[in-house]
């Protein structure tokens, strides 16, 4: 087929059935989609996958050698099971299990090498793949015929693609071969001057080498060229839109002498840290200009971000506008409302008898409010008498109207989608100023920081009276007695007048979030279900924490019950709170000094950092115990060891990136399966990103609309379409 190009539908190249599978399972529609579906990694004969590093539940493709096979009758049903033990050449082994497929023993003879694809499970302490797909690298050698699928693996470097059960890596490789052999390569959009100065190979060569590398050196050069294309497209988009944004109109909200902010500062019973003062000046300057602020406030847990945000909100109210604080949970929104109202005193109760008539009102908007209360609150928001509005996603609903929304503060921005944040911002006549806060930068935030699209302020200094948090891993599989000691530490903290949290990954109301048991004789492989709040609380009350006052908190409790439990805990009427991650952000109980996180390996790095930030918020030292069955040397255990070793939020974000990659920086998912940044690494390619930004700024200074570079404009449209460009700008 000589007329095929990158826009040709795959059905015309690889057949309807295969094309349908590629579309359905991998979102690949055209020849160009497949060309940019680059290998996840490259196996090399003699350099085999270390099977000891495989995670339970992970979808893998491994290069391995058959060591031995065994066929035995099944115990609980008729028929036989074939067990095949394969090795990686370095001591690691996997068991492959096939039910009622004894005939495969003829294929899977000891000594043969193959690629095996499936989901890693565990059965009685052994890693296994249940009925994995496979292709044997010497298949057909006995009769002199080599299967087409295996041709792709004849070279030294074997590409392993992001795949699906219905479309294994060798099928993708066969399709890629067809495309490479029949499709006219796209023209090179990168200007020749830049290619020469940056020592970049041409695009056609890069695409061939990324799929069928002739050497490790050429593979590196190809990856660098394609990573450059991604970085350059993103940088051109960000620089161009940032230039446009500088011209957007926004109402200036300068400081006013003698206003609410001045009175608030004068009444503070403590001195602001140098960091809080410096960041406050940066934000105040942003608010005073006629284009919208777009700033990230990165603050270590307990560094006082909320106080900095409140001072910015008061500046906007002083300037005649309103400020909205968007919180991810009702527990946090209610606590923010209670805390801010308390801090403002009479200045936040302008509508009450003991309030300051020159002050403002603080409104709370949540989904669980009754109709009458909601109407009353929304009227205050609409007429502007409520200068400070605090709420959950309920603020986004139709019918919540502001008189003059000047500032949007998003607390724990990783808990909200970009579209949700933008829905609130759209409630202003002109673009409002935006401040997003986080205690742990998540991948997308780090991405934007690396790209330089956000103005960033960092709070690293803890206010006076805050205590550091000691974190320790409790390895119960290796040292079961350590768990008993953990519960004794909780009792000791309570005996000293303090309180504690016990965090579980699951609620435990069966039928909703409980795992279903595996079928008979299938893979008794998955890990046990995570521990649950409703199971753990009574066990603790009857066992190691007997005699302590224990409360339960989770997301499925009615709002009034959640609030009552938090009030009781805050008031010291409960000793221990057994909870899910509903306490992850913002919950502030200074007397809580200890936290035990059960099945800690089931949580992400960001969650663990956020959770432990609930302790050590007073004058007494904080203690966080990470309980896990993960054994030393596994990725899960290494992740926990890293969390225990540092309180540095940026370092933990980098750890998150190293382990999870960046996710989809250019799409609505923060860690989607299919990332449009396929080769660019925000950690490894920082220098490349910096070079791309410099070139983007230089090129756009000469040619703002890229009218002299139509191919480049088209490439940007492909890599960064309008929706994704808008997503980047919403940030």
From TrEMBL:
It holds the Pfam family RecG_wedge. This is Probable DNA 3'-5' helicase RecG. Residues 511-524 have a biased composition (Acidic residues). Residues 482-658 form the Helicase C-terminal domain. Residues 505-527 are annotated as: Disordered. CDD domains: DEXHc_RecG (cd17992), RecG_wedge_OBF (cd04488). It comes from the Bacteria. Residues 286-459 form the Helicase ATP-binding domain. Keywords: ATP-binding, DNA damage, DNA repair, DNA-binding, Helicase, Hydrolase, Nucleotide-binding. One of its GO terms (molecular function) is DNA helicase activity. SMART domains: DEXDc (SM00487), HELICc (SM00490).
């Amino acid at each position: 087929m000589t007329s095929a190009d990158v826009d040709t539908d795959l059905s015309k190249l690889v057949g309807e059935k295969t094309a349908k599978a590629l579309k359905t399972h991998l979102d690949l529609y055209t020849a160009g989609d497949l060309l940019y579906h680059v290998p996840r990694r490259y196996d090399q004969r003699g350099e085999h996958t270390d099977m000891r590093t495989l995670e339970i539940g992970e979808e893998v493709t491994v290069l391995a050698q058959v060591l031995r096979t065994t066929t035995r009758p099944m115990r609980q049903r008729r028929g036989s099971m074939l067990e095949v033990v394969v090795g990686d050449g370095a001591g690691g082994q996997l068991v492959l299990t096939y039910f009622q497929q004894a005939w495969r023993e003829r294929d899977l003879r000891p000594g043969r090498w193959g690629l095996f694809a499936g989901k890693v499970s565990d059965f009685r302490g052994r890693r296994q793949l249940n009925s994995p797909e496979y292709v044997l690298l010497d298949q057909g050698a006995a009769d002199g015929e080599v299967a087409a699928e295996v041709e792709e693996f004849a070279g030294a470097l074997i590409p392993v693609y992001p795949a699906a059960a219905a479309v294994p890596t060798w099928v993708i490789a066969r399709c890629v071969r067809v495309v490479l052999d029949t499709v006219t390569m796209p023209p090179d959009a990168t200007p020749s001057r830049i290619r020469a100065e940056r020592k970049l190979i041409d695009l056609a060569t890069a695409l061939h080498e990324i799929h069928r590398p002739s050497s490790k050196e050429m593979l590196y050069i190809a990856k660098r060229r394609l990573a450059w294309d991604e970085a350059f497209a993103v940088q051109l988009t960000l620089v161009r839109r940032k230039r446009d944004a500088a011209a957007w109109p926004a109402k200036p909200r300068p400081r006013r002498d003698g206003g609410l902010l001045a009175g608030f500062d004068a009444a503070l019973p403590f001195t602001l840290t140098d960091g809080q003062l410096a960041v406050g000046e940066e934000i105040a300057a942003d608010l005073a200009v006629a284009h919208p602020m777009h700033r990230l406030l990165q603050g270590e847990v307990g560094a006082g971000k909320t106080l900095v945000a409140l001072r910015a909100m008061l500046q906007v109210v002083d300037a005649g506008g309103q400020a909205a604080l968007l919180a991810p949970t009702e527990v946090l929104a209610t606590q923010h409302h209670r805390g801010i109202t308390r801090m403002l005193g009479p200045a936040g109760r302008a509508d009450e008898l003991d309030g300051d008539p020159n002050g403002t009102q603080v409104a709370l908007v949540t989904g669980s409010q009754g109709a009458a209360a909601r109407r009353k609150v929304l009227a205050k928001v609409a007429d502007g008498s409520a200068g400070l509005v605090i709420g959950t996603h309920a603020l986004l609903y139709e019918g919540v109207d502001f008189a003059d929304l000047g500032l949007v503060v998003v607390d724990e921005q990783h808990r909200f989608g970009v579209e949700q944040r933008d829905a609130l911002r759209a409630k202003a006549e002109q673009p409002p100023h935006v401040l997003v806060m986080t205690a742990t930068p998540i991948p997308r935030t780090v991405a934007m920081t690396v790209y330089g699209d956000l103005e960033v302020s960092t709070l690293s200094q803890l206010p006076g009276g805050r205590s550091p948090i000691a974190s320790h891993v409790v390895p119960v599989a290796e040292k079961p007695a350590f768990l008993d000691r953990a519960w004794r530490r909780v009792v000791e903290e309570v005996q000293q007048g303090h309180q504690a949290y016990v965090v579980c990954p699951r609620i435990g109301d069966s039928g909703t979030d409980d795992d279903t048991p595996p079928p008979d004789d299938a893979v008794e492989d998955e890990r046990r279900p995570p521990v649950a709040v409703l199971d753990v609380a009574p066990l603790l009350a009857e066992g190691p924490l007997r005699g302590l006052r224990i409360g339960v908190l989770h997301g499925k409790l009615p709002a009034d019950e959640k609030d009552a439990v938090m009030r009781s805990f805050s008031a010291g009427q409960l000793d221990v709170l057994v909870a899910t991650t509903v306490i992850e952000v913002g919950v502030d109980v200074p007397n809580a000094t200890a936290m035990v996180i059960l099945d800690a390996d089931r949580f992400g790095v960001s969650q663990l950092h956020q959770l432990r930030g609930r302790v050590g918020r007073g004058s007494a030292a904080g203690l966080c115990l990470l309980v896990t069955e993960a054994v030393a040397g596994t990725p899960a255990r290494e992740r926990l060891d890293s969390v225990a070793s540092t309180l540095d939020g940026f370092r933990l974000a980098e750890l998150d990136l190293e382990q999870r990659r960046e996710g989809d920086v250019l799409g609505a998912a923060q860690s989607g399966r299919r990332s449009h940044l396929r080769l660019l690494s925000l950690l490894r390619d920082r220098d490349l990103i910096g070079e791309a930004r410099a070139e983007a700024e230089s090129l756009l200074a000469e040619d703002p609309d890229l009218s002299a570079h139509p191919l480049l404009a088209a490439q940007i449209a492909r890599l960064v379409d309008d929706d994704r460009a808008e997503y980047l700008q919403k940030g």
